[in-house]
Write a structure and sequence with these properties.
The protein is 3% helix and 38% strand. The chain is mainly β and 215 residues long.
Length: 215
């Protein structure tokens, strides 16, 4: 997968979506601000929500959309810079938290052989994905497969913990009801740990708008 596509994390989930299975209710929408720090750079800020597993940031060029997924962000991140924008153009932004139960963890180096399942998740929620496998391919990609146990997930989020990193971060998203996906590894990602989250979303924040200046 091209790096640009991974940065955007495949803008697949832009509609209003609901909770997942028996998972706890999603956290409340954070307060949200946008600041034009140069004619074509917008910096977005929101307060940290300890109940969130991360955030989905979306943008549009009209107040009523269409909306595009800009980035899936880890829970500790509270700002994002949207740089090098089209001059003299309105940009609208909104953000929502996400949550949802996660699978057991597999790594890129000791992935099970094809047909061998990783240990099932020891999760409190019975809607967590199970039987996660990660099969290496000759093209330096990993092919993930899992069992979908939720009934109304918004999709599945692949999360990565790179070598030396303390936490997992979002890296790829799928459609609802998916049970497999592939991910191309970037340099330095060999030996990373992976897990799958059954996504549920919190409420949308208020929309904020900034119009860029002359370049």
């Amino acid at each position: 997968m091209p790096t640009v596509a991974r940065t955007a994390l495949a803008a697949l989930l832009t509609a209003t979506l609901v909770g997942c299975g028996t998972a706890a209710p999603p956290p409340a929408a954070p307060a949200f601000t946008a600041t034009l720090t140069s004619p074509t750079n917008v910096v977005l800020h929101w307060p940290s929500d300890p109940a969130a597993a991360g955030y989905l940031l979306e943008y549009a060029n009209a107040a009523d959309g269409p909306w595009t997924a800009l980035q899936y962000l880890p829970p500790g991140q509270t700002s994002y810079t949207h740089p090098n924008l089209i001059p003299e153009t309105p940009f609208y932004y909104r953000i929502r938290s996400f949550a949802g139960p996660v699978s057991a963890t597999v790594t890129a180096d000791d992935a099970p052989a094809p047909g061998t399942a990783a240990p099932s998740a020891n999760a409190a929620s019975q809607s967590a994905p199970t039987d996660l496998t990660a099969t290496p391919a000759p093209d330096q990609s990993l092919h993930f497969a899992w069992t979908d146990r939720s009934t109304d997930e918004a999709g599945f989020l692949v999360e990565i913990r790179r070598p030396g990193a303390p936490d997992f971060a979002p890296v790829e998203v799928t459609d609802p009801n998916a049970t497999h996906c592939a991910l191309s590894l970037l340099p330095g990602e060999q030996g990373s740990a992976f897990r799958i989250r059954a996504l549920s979303y919190g409420p949308l924040s208020p929309v904020v708008e900034r119009t860029t200046g002359k370049d």
